[in-house]
Amino acid sequence: MKVYKVKVNGKVYEVELEAVEEKAGSIEAPKAAPGAPSTSVSQEAKNFQAPLSGKLLDIKVNVGDTVKKGQVLCVIEAMKLENAVQSNMDGKILEIKATKGAMVASKDVLFVIG
User: Fold this and answer.
1) pLDDT tens digits for range 60-72
2) How far from chain centre, in Å, is Cα 67?
3) Are 18 and 1 spatial neighbours (Cβ–Cβ below 8 Å)?
4) Do residues 102 and 55 make contact, with C-beta atoms less than 8 angstroms apart?
């Protein structure tokens, strides 16, 4: 996996790209060597997805913060309403995948919680 910075309309986004191989008209991700360590953050890590589409107004947590089920993680504006998005699990914020001010779609990964 390589991380690149991409500038679109004056905003900078971090994008992770993984090389894939094309075989007989289909695209497959490269297979890991047997016994190779996993590239995932943790086997216990879970992706927290956006429950609705809208503009991400505020992020209330930082990487490394411990969160409890029901704690507000961020605020998403949808149809002129500000929606406080709560955690559905206890854990630690391992990664923040969205940026303040970005448009998010329902089911986009916002946080990785472990």
Assistant:
1) 999 999 999 999 9
2) 16
3) yes
4) yes
